[in-house]
Amino acid sequence: MTMDATLSGHLQELRRGTVVVASLITLRTPGYGYSLLETLSQAGFEVEANTLYPLLRRLEAQGLLTSEWNTDEARPRKFYRTTEQGDALAGTLRDEWSRIDTAIGDLSVKSGSEE
């Protein structure tokens, strides 16, 4: 396994959970999948459509998102919105992310390799 493949795998693992948090936060304002992809991309989250759509369905099945079809336009679109439970989870995950970030920063300072 090359270093590039190793790095790629670790970056993918690191990003996986952050896309969940970013999606739950973004969908506090209702949106559909394609607009969420664009918003996440503009914010620096690299996510493919074939990763995002199953994630949205899984979050909905977990009660963290709700959805409804908008048929007012020529092409029906499924809009998603974060539920109260999803909003609470997003807050908890953000707090945990901050705690982990602080802990990693503390380790970096202690080892003398702050980045």
From TrEMBL:
Domain Transcription regulator PadR N-terminal: 28-88
InterPro entries: Metal_resp_DNA-bind_regulator (IPR052509), Tscrpt_reg_PadR_N (IPR005149), WH-like_DNA-bd_sf (IPR036388), WH_DNA-bd_sf (IPR036390)
One family name in Pfam for this protein: PadR
Gene3D superfamilies (alphabetical): Winged helix-like DNA-binding domain superfamily/Winged helix DNA-binding domain
Organism superkingdom: Bacteria
Name of the protein in question: PadR family transcriptional regulator
Protein's organism: Paractinoplanes toevensis
